Amino acid sequence: MEGGGNMGVMFATVEERVEPETARVTGSWPEWLRGSFLRVGPGKFDFGDFTLNHWLDGMAIMHRFHIDGDKVTFRSRYLRSDAYKKACVAQRPVFTEFGTHNYPDPCKNIFSRMFSQFDMTDNASSSVICVEDQVFVSSETCYLRRIDPASLDTKDKIDLNKLMSVNFASSHPLTDASGTTYNLGCSCIGHPRYNVVKVPPSRESNLTGGDPWLNARTLTSVHSSWKTWYSYYHSFGMSENYIVFLEQPLLVNTLRLATSQIKSRSLKECFEWHPQEKVKFIVIKKSTGEIVKTRYVCEDPFFVFHHVNTYESDGHLVVDVVAYPSPAIIDKLFLNKVRMNEYSSEDPPQLKRFVLPLISEKELQVAREGEELVRLPGSAASAVKAKGGGGGQGPSIALTGVDIGEPGFDMPVINARHAARPYRYVYGTGGYDRGHYRNAVCKVDVETGEAWLWQGNEYQYLAEPAFVPSPSALQEDDGVVLASVADVRKDAPDFLLVCDARTMKELGRACIDAQLPSSVHGLFLHDKL
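The structure assignment produced for this chain is given below.
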């Protein structure tokens, strides 16, 4: 099945634009919108006669739109990671990437190659994050890179394995109202375990430019349900008092992973989909690290990249995610498919809500099998006491989610002021899906499913948006939505789109002569006054 327009153009290697270029502005937006829209994603896929296998293998490129009143500038720059620098020399990836195995490092002699251990890539192409006013780019390995948000220069490398003994980490750390940052990491040594990492705020690191990650400590560890597999994760949820993560059926085989370097395997080749496994919702108390003993499971398999928001309401945890029926989305993004304009719309993403009643094991014991435990008024999501004991582990709660809006929605963002709190609106895009949200940036009411769209033509593809609230906002959706738009027509410019967050009507755009790199995640940083 073909994608719209010539989407293959989106997956070509792009040239960086190191020096800022002035964009052509049409329309107008609020005077208070001043700052930098930063994004990162894969950008370099070709090295001489060698092409990487998967979109996620591409070397990380950052781009920045800087808005100063009615003046907008654009620049882009490749992350000078070790992976990038070595690949440019070897004309091959020297580190194992997502869908492409590693090749020999020409800078090492044969003996060094024979005895080298598995080394993670630092190709941080997934996300831009801010911790204590410092900006980093990250992937899903143990490495982050500090960057200069103005020049996009690459700074020092942060090794989370040395600091907190994790081999892989979520691309989406979350910061609560106290300024404490949490992340989910996995340790693959021995019985795999998930580590919830806590980074308390530090005035010292903030004032001196020190490393906030040096304050990190492990809040708790949870053993994987399997001895030689762990569940893949990209994000997790956090309410005011709880951490929630999903142990889902896409598993990583740690035995295959351990030998991937010598066996020339990519990370993708260590993945296994086990749809017979239940999705487990693991709940942890933030204050103590205690794992809630009540077991929450969903019988129907699904796959999640992105949590939307998690909050507490009248003794329940509301967990909103974007769920796929399977991880087929990963296979859709191999370059040999997308460069041929092939993208199947089967197994589209679906915004979905789960409701977890916060009841104790004792309360669950006395409940009747099949009894509905969700007491939230108007909630269509279900949680019932499951039949049977579940392998001698006591009763569990069987969850059934409820769909919100039409399928095809992903890359969700919300008003950050409503994170971990009840909220009404989520913004996202249709990505490359050809369904209801195709070629659009959209706003969805999570209570009603109603949607508002800015919809481009079939040649325009929108990346993950950013919501920027008005400084004087009284309503949740008072602000603007920013989105990078790539137009694959030869003579049509790419541009930064600015929409009214209430109506999703276009306020203005900033057109550039450069090709916008395809990006994954980003953020908006207000200019300091």
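Interim note for the steering committee: Residues 7-526 form one domain. Confidence is low (pLDDT under 50) at residues 110-116.
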